[in-house]
Every structure is written in structure tokens, then in C-alpha cells.
Amino acid sequence: MAVAETLPAGTARGGWRGLLSFGDSRALGAVLLLAPAVLFFLVVFVVPVGLMIRYSFYQQTQTGDLTASATLANYVRLASVDLYRTVVMTTVRVSLWTTAIAMLLAYPLALVMVRGHRMVGRALTVIVLAPLLINVVVRTYAWRVILANGENGVLNWTLAHFGLGPVQLLYTEWAIIIGSVHVFLPMMVLPLSAALGKINPAVEEAAATLGASSFAVFRRVTLPLSMPGLAVGATLVFSLTASSFVTPALLGGNFAKMLGTLVEEQILVVFDWPFGAAIATLLTVLVMVVNLASIWLVERRFPSRAAEAN
Amino acid sequence: MSEGGLGKGALLLYSITGVITLFLLVPLLFPIVLSFSDTPFVVFPPQGFTLQWYAKVLNEPDFTTPFLFSVQLGLLAAAGALLIGTPTAMGLVRYNFPGRGLIQGLVLSPLVFPMLVTGIALLRLFTSLHSNSSLTNLAIGHTLVTVPYVVRTVSASLLLIDPGIEDAARTLGATRAMTFWRITRPQIVPGLFAGGIFAFVTSFDNYAISMWLADAENFPMPMAMFALISRMFDPGIAAIASLMILMSIVIVVVLEWLTGLQRAMSV
Fold first, then answer.
1. Does domain A81-309 have CATH number 1.10.3380.30?
2. Shortest CA distance to A124 belongs to which of A133, A114, A138?
3. Of the candidates B208, B106, B218, which has an alpha carbon nearest to the alpha carbon of residue B151?
């Protein structure tokens, strides 16, 4: 859903020359159609994000004004104070675990969606997509009910029946990971099933005919060919988990803080705008680095596929 | 290959998939089960059966006011996204020019940019501009993050129609506006519908933008639910969750019936 795939140019006529040969009237058409969106996005998105990043290089005085000269103090504070370093590490750790578990769970789902019986595939597609339309707060609330510490939690009640437990999961990193996997799994399944759908079954059949075992076919043929989809899915799940607020706030509470909950506290409770802006900038850089690394990896290993996708 | 190409491992694969499907669906059943419990607190297993919690929350202003506010906000966002997204899709599909990729990347970027950060940037902007109308700020923020959905669904619709008909109308003397209203619009209705529904649902469920821009009088549904979780301990909160799940199921059915869920979500 959130895959920013490129739109095909469709019926477009090529280049400025093509545009101008139709006379000024055509060029005017394109400008009239696109100007509102470009203006809107510049004013309420590009410029504000730029200003916010700029803010992160200043400090707030007692009166709430900004200091005169730029400084890296906010970033130094983020890197040197133990509490904040812990939050950064928790964010990276939770996002990596969520991504890894989502990959493991998404593979069988995507395979059955693409290769399974047609009716099963269709039903599975609806089952995977439908939860995306249920509010994150509602989905996270369901996990609070399940993971609740004490005897009223669904999980602990069930464990007690088998003479096990109780476990303390709510307000731990694992609660955030479980909740995040549940919320973001569709984002991994969708690009993965799209990539699997593009693999020509004849390639796999050829490998099998030539004597490769089912596992060898999967490991040597299917898995490598599905890498672009896996990379897109992993990037999405990592980015969404790292920048989430609701799931860490409701399942991690004060005991497992992530960057999303920290930045909310700094801006809406402490009102330390410049420090909040620095946290937000760090979050942006983290997400962008992962995105660029993923693009670089896919283009290096699959130059032809990357070109095709554009 | 048997089983439509899954090979020998088919049975194992189906079993694993079944278990993962349960992991996806079963958690969503618990709020529903607990909402009927005749106990003063949320307990598992639920005891007795009552509909009193539904009666309670439907008369609870802490639920109904934010619900109606989110409907209003969702409609504003959908209108804004259609107004900005439709011409953008037409410009991107019908014309090719240097910088086309850049503009396309720009209008789709809210989907990949951390939304939490977008919200902070918007709060900074509105504070600097002394824009104190929370509803206006929220509507602008929600429009920004829903435009990409409209651009995608409308583009998909535009690619299916023949631009020659539009050229013919223009040649025959129709103005740009007339050509759009009489020729293009009727042909892209499914795209406009799907885009509008998506914009509405995305706005209705949005938290990452709202959390920065809302105030006590302009308080959207997801934030109200978040606040209620930490101060409402009776099964009423489960009833609210169940009502939200029910609403999502209705939307899934409508989308599946309208265009097919998979196509609507442009998978």
C-alpha cells in the first residue's frame, strides 16, 4: 500500500520539445494541472521539514527564544546522555527484530497467496489486507488485552491452564515487537507477493527437473529472485516500526521507550522544541539511510529489474 | 506441479499459513468477546452476557463527539485530497516533461517519509504562522498525507481511458473545464471513488499527524480511544474497539464490492 512505485507515463508525449510543439497551450495545461500540488507540497511539507531540521541546530533560552548561533549541542546531548542512547538502541533493536520476524512470517503467506489454490489465495489476500483498515489504536488495544500482566491477561490465563507462566510481557520490548509484527506484517507480504508473482514458474521447474530438491529450489532460485520484494518490504516495516508512536506508547509504556515516544514527550510535555527537532531529524536520517541502502542493494544486485521497475 | 505450483511442501506450507492467519485474525476477536462481559472490569474469560456497554458508549459524549469530529475531518481531507490529487494525476499521466519524476516523487513522498516527523514540521509551521484553528490545521495536515492515495487511484483510472476522446472534444471547441467535466470525469469515477474512500479512511485512522495538531475541542477518534484506554476500565472500551472493527469490516466489504479490495489498495 505504501510502496511509492513509479507511475507509468502512459499516453504522455515526450520531452519539452514534444510539449512545445503543441504550442504554449499544452505547456500551459501541464503547469495549470500541477502547480497547485507543487505549491501546496512546498508550503506545507518541504519548507516546514527544512525549517524543523534547521531548528535542531539551535538551543532554547530561558525565555523560549532561540540562541543566536548554530550549535551541535542537541545532537551531542542525544549521543552522550545514557537515557537517550538507550532509547536510540531500543528503537533500532525493536525495528530490526520486527523486520526479521515479519520476513519469516510473510514468506509462507506470500507463497500461498501467489502459488496456492486460487480461492485460497484470494481469501488470504483479503485476510492480509483487511486489518490495514482497522485503526492502529484498536489493534494495539487487542494486544494489551492479550498480553496483560497478571491473571486477567488472555495469554497468562491460557498458560495457567497448562500449569505454566505467568509471563510479564506487557511494558517490555517484546510486547512492542509482537504488536508491531501484527500491525506491519501486511507491508511485508504485499511487496513480497508482488515479487514472487513475477518469477516465471518455468525457472523453478527447470531447477527441479535438473535434480534440485524442493529446499534447494527455494534457496537457490525462489529466494534470490524474490529479493527485490523482500528489500522493499523490509524497508517499509523497519521505517514504520522505527517511527511509530501508538504501539510503543501502549505496549512499551515508560519501561521501553522508543524515539516516537521520546519526541512526543520532549515537544508536547517538556516543550524543548530544538531537542525534539533533533530527535525527529535523527529519526528521519535513520529511515532515509535504510531506504537508500535498500535501493542501492536492489540496484546493485538486480540492475535489470530495477530498470524495469522504473 | 500439483496444488497450483506449490510442490511437495504444499501441505506443510498450508498448515504454517493457517497458523499465521490465526495470528493475524484471532487477536481482533478478543475485544469483541470481552465487550459482552457482564462485569464491572475487563476480565478474561468474560462472564455473563450483556449489551449494556454498547448502550453506554453510544450515549457517551467522550465517544460520540470525537467520532463525529473524525467523520467531519475525514470528509474535509477527502475533499481536499480529491481537489489537489485529481489535477496532479492528470498532469502526471497526460504530459511528459523533464522533472516529471521529481514532481511525482514529491507528491508520493508522504507515504515513505516518517509521518510523525511530518506532523512535527506542520506543528512548527502552524505555530510560526499563529494559525490557531485546530480544525483548519488538521484538515491541511490530513490532506497532505492523503493526496498520494488519490494520485495513485486516479492515475490508474486515467491510464485505462483513451486520451483521443479528450483531444476530439478540445478540437471540437470544448474548453478545458468542459472537457474534464463532460468527458474525463465520467470515465474516472471508480478511481475518484476509491481515492476518496481511501483518503477518508486514512484520515479517520490517522494518529501521527493528529497527535500534534489536535486540541481539546478538536479531538479525533483514534486519540479519544487512546485516552480512554488509560482511564476507562469497564468493557465499554472493548465495545468501542468492537464498533471500530465493525466499521472497518463494512468498509472492506464496500471496497471489495466496488472495485475489489486488492485493486483498490493498488497492490
1. no
2. A114
3. B106
Residue ranges of the domains in chain B? 54-90+109-264
SS3 B97: coil
In degrees rounded to 5, what are phi and psi of residue A66? -95, 150
Q: Within chain B, what is the greatest distance between any pair of CA atoms?
A: 72
DSSP B36-91: T--SSS--SS--S---HHHHHHHT-HHHHHHHHHHHHHHHHHHHHHHHHHHHHHHH
Among A135, A217, A261, the residue to mutate for chain B (most B Cβ within 10 A): A135
**CA-to-CA separations, A219 to A116, A215, A234, in angstroms, rounded:** 19, 6, 18
Q: Any residues with CB less than 8 A from the CB of A48 and at least 6 apart, and which?
A: B121, B122, B124, B125
Q: Is the pLDDT of residue A4 over 60?
A: no
Per CB-CB distance under 8 Å, the chain B contacts of A249 are 226
Residue A10 confidence class, pLDDT cut points 50, 70, 90: very low
Q: For chain B, 267 residues long, give each residue's pLDDT as a single digit of tens.
A: 434 456 667 888 899 999 999 999 999 998 898 888 888 877 778 888 888 889 988 998 989 999 999 999 999 999 999 999 999 999 999 888 888 999 999 999 998 899 999 999 999 999 999 998 999 999 999 999 999 999 998 998 898 888 888 889 989 989 888 988 999 999 898 889 889 988 999 999 999 999 999 998 999 999 999 999 888 778 888 999 999 999 888 888 877 776 666 665 653
Taking a C-beta distance cutoff of 8 angstroms, is the pair A83, A250 a contact? Answer: no
CA atoms of A33 and A38, how far apart (whole Å): 10
Measured CA to CA, the distance from residue B215 to residue B234 in angstroms comes to: 26
User: Residue A258: helix, strand or coil by DSSP?
Assistant: coil
Nearest CA in chain A to B111: A2
Q: Is residue B256 left, alpha or beta, with left meaning phi > 0 and alpha meaning psi from -120 to 50?
A: alpha
Check residue A192 and give its pLDDT: 94
Q: What ranges do the domains of chain A cover?
A: 81-309
Question: What pLDDT sits at residue A151?
Answer: 78
Angstroms from A172 CA to nearest CA on chain B: 17
A-chain CB neighbours of B111 within 8 Å are 2-4
* B144 vs A44, A208, A280: nearest CB: A44
Q: Is B140 on the interface with A (CB under 8 A)?
A: yes
Question: What is the DSSP-derived secondary structure letter of residue A46?
Answer: I
Could you report the predicted ipTM of this complex, rounded to two decimals? 0.89
The partner residues of A231 in beta bridges, in order of sequence, read: none
A-proximal residues of B, 28-67, CB under 8 Å: 28, 30-31, 34, 41-45
Other beta carbons less than 10 A from residue B244's beta carbon? 23
How big is chain A by its Cα radius of gyration, in Å? 24
- The count of residues in chain A is 310
In this structure, which CATH number among 2.40.110.10, 1.10.3720.10, 3.40.640.10, 3.40.50.2000 belongs to the domain B54-90+109-264?
1.10.3720.10
User: Cα–Cα distance between A58 and A36 in angstroms, integer?
Assistant: 33
Count CB neighbours of A47 within 10 A. 13
